[in-house]
Specification:
94 residues; mainly alpha; two-stranded antiparallel ribbon; elongated
Length: 94
């Protein structure tokens, strides 16, 4: 699905701005191709954010199972487990 987005962004950028012409902005110059490169980075980062969110909130993974188990014993353990998962989400796992 992301490929369709990039194809659409490519054609819209090419149609509206072109890739050869350079435009002057307040802080510098840019081209249509540089905007397209920014769109590629944005789509990649969006995919990464979706993947991380699904990993830490999905039900088919160990962290989801641990949240379900913590929810059976009360509110306090559910909050503690949620904090533990959120702290784990900030670290890079190997």
């Amino acid at each position: 699905m992301r490929c369709f987005s990039l194809v659409g962004i490519f054609f819209v950028t090419w149609f509206l701005m072109g890739f050869g012409e350079t435009y002057v902005a307040k802080d510098g110059e840019f081209s249509g191709f540089s905007l397209f490169l920014c769109a590629i980075v944005g789509v990649a980062v969006t995919g990464l954010i979706i993947w991380v969110t699904e990993y830490y909130t999905g039900t088919a993974i160990p962290s989801g199972a641990s949240r379900r188990q913590a929810s059976t014993t009360g509110h306090g353990t559910n909050v503690i487990q949620g904090l533990a998962i959120s702290m784990e989400a900030t670290a890079v796992r190997r």
